[in-house]
What we know:
Strand content: 5-15%
GO biological process, one term: 'de novo' L-methionine biosynthetic process
CATH superfamily of the largest domain: Type I PLP-dependent aspartate aminotransferase-like (Major domain)
Number of domains: 2
CATH class of the largest domain: Alpha Beta
Pfam family, one: Cys_Met_Meta_PP
Helix content: 40-55%
Catalytic activity: O-succinyl-L-homoserine + hydrogen sulfide = L-homocysteine + succinate
Family: Belongs to the trans-sulfuration enzymes family. MetZ subfamily.
Radius of gyration: 22 Å
Bound molecules: pyridoxal-5'-phosphate
Structural class: alpha/beta
Number of strands: 12
Oligomer: single chain
Largest sheet: 7 strands, mixed
Keywords: Amino-acid biosynthesis, Methionine biosynthesis, Pyridoxal phosphate, Transferase
Number of helices: 15
Amino acid sequence: MSEPLKTRLATDLIHAGRIRTNLEENGEALFLTSGFTYESAEMAESVFANQADHYQYSRFANPTVTMLQDCLAKIDGAEACRATATGMAAVHAAVMCGIKAGDRVVASRALFGSCHWIISTLLPQYGIESVFVDGGDLEGWKAALSQPAALVLLESPSNPMLDIVDLRAVSALAHEAGAIVVVDNVFATPLLQKPLELGADVVVYSATKHMDGQGRVLGGAVLSSKKWIEEVFQPFFRNTGPSISPFNAWVILKGLETMQLRVKAQSENAEVVARFLEGHPKIQRALYPTLDSFKQRELAMSQMSGGGTLVAFELKGSKAEAFRMMNAFRIITISNNLGDTKSLATHPATTTHMKIGPGERAKLGITDGTIRLSVGLEDARDLIEDLTQALDQV
Ligand SMILES: *Cc1c(COP(=O)(O)O)cnc(C)c1O
């Protein structure tokens, strides 16, 4: 046998993990089956005794899902991956599978709304203490991790204000405290940031975002070492059933083939949009990791290879002005999804971040004039024209 070729990202997105049946199909097969059969009762017995390699039931494993998992593991540099039904199923399972009553969990405050709910509301119901810190405040992390902890959950860049957490420093502090580090890497994507290389132990994704990236299906993924996935995650996953549909896995697998092209082009558009917004007289401030004005630019660029597809900005004005601008968009659409080929605008204060209340929003820097833009694949000139005409109406 010859050594496997050392291939690069663009190649891996198209070839890694792919398997062919003996029918030699080119497009990946969609194994839309809930279960698998055994040629004999003895065969079934040996499969359940883990003595034979054979698919059993799609809640545990499915060949189309395996292709997605193996491709994601390759591009993230992880030993193992499990795909889940949604990003939240991935976060929930990754957090819950290894902690128990009496444990402490430390998290960055700027989390995706449902992740915040799991830490702040769900965990305490099971006797797990949760502590929030400001993601950019290393002293805050030091203080919170000066006591033993079981798990750290963080998001960088964060939603929607693109706060950056120092992944290397926080991972080191967490490990000293005895915690594993789980990073929600949705905003950066595996193309722009590799948390496992920076010290994290587990990476979670919403595959709904850039991996599908075309607004079709929900999905998620959990990546880590083979040992953690098999010993800690798999029993929880197999017995609680957050599994992805093979159909959705197949759609996401096809999405991965173009993800690098999409994320690259969308990130270029996002930077153009951010620079335009920053210079506009009706804009108070624009946030994008590669802008000179971005406070954490240096840290961002030390752990990310690009700025990503999201831009946040604050209008001079309040809710009325923000709504007027959003209602005036003719190309950009109002939606709370992100990482899509279509440019999408969200008003966090009245949608994704409504439930956390004004006090928590103020801590995160979200004002009533803040708009989050997920920049799509349209021609950047058309996006600038759309933003210009919308701002004219404010
Ligand atoms: C969307 C998102 C999630 C949740 O993913 P779903 O697929 O919607 O369940 C978690 N974290 C971040 C940062 C997200 O953007």
